[in-house]
Design brief:
- By secondary structure, the chain is mostly helical.
- The protein is built from 3 helices and no strands.
- It is elongated and about 55 Å long.
- The protein starts with a helix and ends with a helix.
Amino acid sequence: MAEAHVSTIFLAAAIAELAVAAPLIIRLAAGPTVSDRIVALNAVCAQATLAVLLFAAYAGRTVYLDPALWLAAFSYLGTIVWSRYLERGLL
């Protein structure tokens, strides 16, 4: 019985993470500067990573952990690359 409640909490938290990502997606589309869009994309990727991790806990499937870790690693790397690109004034 208690496991069902914990699973429900994990699912609710995953959905809440996706709900938090919604305003970030709006900022990603409408951001006034490229820097705002980069920060929004990084935040959306962080929210998506958390949502996938929480869904993995809800579903009890460890197979979802690898894509979440890859998403976290590559979103961080992408943010660094874009920031360096902007820092050099190439855009």
